[in-house]
Amino acid sequence: MNSPLFELRGVLAKSTKLKIGLIGLAAIVLIWWLAVKLRIVNPHIIPSPFAILASFPELISRDRMFHHLGLTVFMNIAGWIEGALISLPIGFIIGLFPVFNALFGGYIQATRYIPLTATIVLFMAAFGIYMMMKIQFLTFAILVYLITAVVGRIQETPQVYVDAVKTLGASKWQIIRTVFVPHVLSRVSTDFINIVAFSWTYDVYVELINKQEGGIGALIYNLYFRQNQTEKLYALIIMMVGVGYAFDLLLRMLDRKAFPFKYS
To answer: Would you identify the CATH topology of the domain 56-263?
Structure first.
């Protein structure tokens, strides 16, 4: 079969890909609606997609969805920024200098296996139960993985680049500034985009602490566990997927602007 639709690892035109994607979405919605309509699934557990859409006006007007979304986005962005500011210098120090790698490298690697949700009580003890604690928890969730990513990217930097600038008489600081920093940052940016994708999950979890403060996690608890409004739960999940995907596109656009050579 010579059709580009079935070519191995083939590339479709953007318009074709969009049309097929819309057909796929329509098929999912139709199958979902039929499953609920024919009572194949319990509508109290999986409501109709149209009931979910119909719940958005009340979510916006009565339940202040955008207010809670703003708090969630703010906490995430604050955690991303603080996590990056802490992770980058620590990662460079451990990755560049063998003495620090020997001292701390193994322990940093081991932090990836910490059950992060189990540490929430430690953050509550240290920072209380308010927004500062939530941001610090999200920061920790980022740096646990990002420090390791920075160290790994430093180790992956081709030695030929280092040798080339050494022949020009570059000092250690010049090698770091002209070789390691641009090369590592261009790679770590992709790692950062992938890491922050799961920070939304931790954000919803941590917002269950002191729910009166707000956030999408608190709103989900109030609407579903207290009021059993299942369609609104699904609406919030869909909305969070859309927001997360929008941020992913934004970060990738910024990545293309900052490191265009990666995409050439």
So the answer is: MetI-like fold (1.10.3720)
